[in-house]
Amino acid sequence: MKLVDVTTQPARNDAPLTVLEDMDGHTARLVLSGEVDLATSTILRSALYGIADANPDELIFDFSRLEFLSAAGAVAIVTEIRRRRPARTVIVSNDPSVSRSLTLLGAGAGIEIFPTLAEARAALSSVRGALRVC
């Protein structure tokens, strides 16, 4: 797996955001580093539209490097999650404020949040295995 920088425009110096993309079969992973706020949410939206074109079966939002998530960033993520259903979407974050923000916006029922990437991948693998057995 190789992370590719899909940041399409430079972020402000005081609110940098980098979005890296990793495609592994039918699973896409977006790794966000820095801050997602009103000024950088357009960068996130651009990356989300790009990943949507690939139409992955599973999407992992990796927030383990994220320093700040504003309401504008959370809205962009919730909008993408709702648009993608029924595709499987998970979030990697050990920051309780991320979970609270997404739950307040109504995404809590549609996503699972895992503290590590390994746990998120294991959960996706177990669902894939269960689907093959049925």
TrEMBL record:
InterPro entries assigned: STAS_dom (IPR002645), STAS_dom_sf (IPR036513)
PANTHER family: ANTI-SIGMA FACTOR ANTAGONIST TM_1081-RELATED (PTHR33495:SF2), ANTI-SIGMA FACTOR ANTAGONIST TM_1081-RELATED-RELATED (PTHR33495)
Protein name listed in UniProt: STAS domain-containing protein
Pfam families in UniProt: STAS
Domain STAS: 30-124
Domain of life of the native organism: Bacteria
UniProt-listed PROSITE patterns: STAS (PS50801)
Gene Ontology molecular-function annotations: anti-sigma factor antagonist activity
